[in-house]
Amino acid sequence: MWLSVFSLLVVMPVGRAYPGGAPASACVDMTPQHGPSEQNSAPPYELIVDKTEYVGGEEVQVTLRRTGNSATFKGFFIQARTPGSTDAQGRFTTVDSGTTKTVNCGSVANSQNSVSHTGRGEKSSVTVTWTAPANRVGHIQFRATVVQTEEIFWVSSVKSAYVEDPTAGPVPTVASDGQDIGVTSSGCGSTKGCYQAPTGCAPPSCEYFSSWQTSGNNILFEISGKTAGYVAIGISEDKKMGEDDIYECLYDSDAGTTTVHSAWSTGKSRPERDNTQGGVSAIQGSYVEGVVSCKFTRAINDAAAGRRKRQAKVNNGRFYDLNSDFFLLMAKGSTTGSTISYHTANRVVSSREVDFQSNTQVTGANSPDIVKAHGALMMIAWVATASVGVLMARFFKHLWPEDKLCKEKVWFSIHRALMISTVLLTIIALILILTYNNWLWATHAGAHAIIGIIVVILALINPLMALARPHPDQPKRFIFNWAHWAVGTAARILGVVAIFLGMDLAALDLPPAATFIMVGWVIWHALAEIVLEIHNCATSSKLGGRPEELEMDTKGEDQKSKPLRGGGYTGGHGFRKGVLGIYVFGMLGFLIALLVYVGIN
Q: CA–CA separation, 88 vs 47, rounded Å?
């Protein structure tokens, strides 16, 4: 019986087994002494310190808190450690004895070098005071194990920024070992300010993400972006490149590491780096599945930077004072080793100046006019002209059997004009976006760029095939008919797919409402084709043949002598014209709504 009771106590979760705090046996590995496995996800908690440097005997305020509206926690265990060591450093003083207590780890009696919880109550934050050793021991990082529930806990994975020892070497940089450093949108607008592109995205799905949070005389920055090279944040007095405070989050594929470089931009040339990393500390970085992420601390101004000022050659040794507001710039590109290339055209800028000491969520500035024009022309081409042109060729050949327009059959003249317009609009849109991208391949656009090029190729192939088509009476004419239909249908489908993909790119970044409007048009067009197809089948069934199909004959032939394929029935004209009118009216509504979103974005 006593053995059973003892076994039960051993496997009880820490929230129950140790309501008075973590046991001394957790001093080295910081692991709760119970059964369930630790979580591998990024913890929804953070450790905040009020200093970036320390001297012997100096006090540092340490706060463990949840991020955003994440769950509260029941238990915790905090230590201060130097890089690569499991020894607890310094001494803790509890601020609230009702929720915290000190723990003695190591062989020194009454060391009070760790701190844990008391009781099982829910906690959203706790603050303790840490006193540094009399003699500095190197850079210090606070680590915490946090217990959310009896089965959910994170072991030693909640980490603070480094509190630096100015007499020690460079601050360690987190290597890119496939472990995400936990850049998150949790807390945006409540505990930290954020910029997200597309709007409302959450890393790692963001093209660009940055956040900022005040900690004493410093700003804690997080940045990430979809790239295998670098993503950079710029602090600027205007919306243009030049005279900008730059911080490059760079993945060096040769070394397999990710780090931050402080730099200064004088224009469109490569930013000049500050080799002393003046004012920058607590650097962490990772590269995981195509996303580069970094965290770092930046002093608010020169006075806060203290001895860690910039090189004199970089902006005369100064950097922007974040007590003032600035525009936020973000860009990304490829790297060769630790050298960055010119950024891609898909750069972004805040819509207004940013207060980096606020928790405001910042939106991007209006999309460049040339990008708007590209998107608008593609929408006009594939939502309007192509869709109506296809309907004319498929369902309206028999409506005007004897009438001519521009010396050709009415349906054919309208179809040809609309499809030529589609091709011209597509080519112009392509030229515009290539100009915006400096005639370089837009790797950041991913599938959108690839599918867009395929659409352009297919759009050019179809009219070229039409110029070489055989006469309608030729026996192999059906080959052209099927090829013309297949290429045109593929172009239409891929054109719509490319529009959907382009709506989410950071350069345009349309809101979700625009995507729903585009989905609405797809449904609207499909309904129109279904109704007309049913009517087509119903009218042709009266003749026991195939749906009517008029070909464009050679000029000068007797058109009246050519019967309709499938018979001579030509009824239902009024119905089809009515469906066409209703479709065009609705389509224009969807198109105008999309163009409005493009214009005001």
A: 16
Q: Measured in whole angstroms, how far is the alpha carbon of residue 206 from the centre of its chain? A: 1
User: Strand (E) positions, 358-443?
Assistant: 361-362, 404-405, 408-409
Q: Is beta strand 100-103 parallel, antiparallel or unpaired with respect to 91-94?
A: unpaired
Cα 267 to chain center, whole Å? 26
Closest C-alpha among 437, 426, 259 to residue 335: 259
User: Contact at 8 Å (CB) between 455 and 492?
Assistant: no
Dist. CA 575–CA 581, nearest whole Å: 10
Give yes or no for residue 412 having a pLDDT over 50. Answer: yes
> Under a CB-based contact definition with an 8 Å cutoff, are residues 96 and 116 in contact?
no
How would residue 430 be classed by pLDDT, with cut points 50, 70 and 90? very high
Q: Are 92 and 130 in contact (CB under 8 A)?
A: yes
Q: DSSP 3-state assignment of 194?
A: strand
pLDDT (0 to 100) of residue 34? 59
Greatest extent of the chain over all pairs of C-alpha atoms, in Å: 112
What is the spatial distance between Cα 445 and Cα 40, in angstroms, rounded to a whole number?
A: 31
Helix (H) or strand (E) holding 480: helix 477-503
The DSSP H or E segment spanning 257 is strand 257-265
Share above pLDDT 90 across residues of the chain, in percent, rounded to a whole number: 28
Give the C-alpha distances (Å, rounded to integers) separating 529 from 323, 382, 481, 579. 60, 16, 19, 10
DSSP 354: B
Kindly write down the DSSP assignment for every residue of 71-83, as one continuous string: --BSEEEEEEE-T
DSSP E strand boundaries for 140-217: 141-147, 153-159, 193-197, 208-215
User: What letter would DSSP give residue 413?
Assistant: H
Q: Is 154 left (phi over 0), alpha (psi -120 to 50) or beta?
A: beta
Distant-in-sequence, close-in-space partners of 457: CB < 8 Å, separation ≥ 6 = none
Amino acid sitting at position 332: K
Report helix, strand and coil shares of the chain as percent, to nearest 5: 30, 25, 45
CB 213 within 8 A of CB 68: no
pTM of the model: 0.47
Q: Compute the distance between CA of residue 301 and CA of residue 281 in angstroms, rounded to an integer.
A: 14
- In 140-274, where does DSSP find H-type helix? none
In angstroms, the CA 341 to CA 67 distance is 35
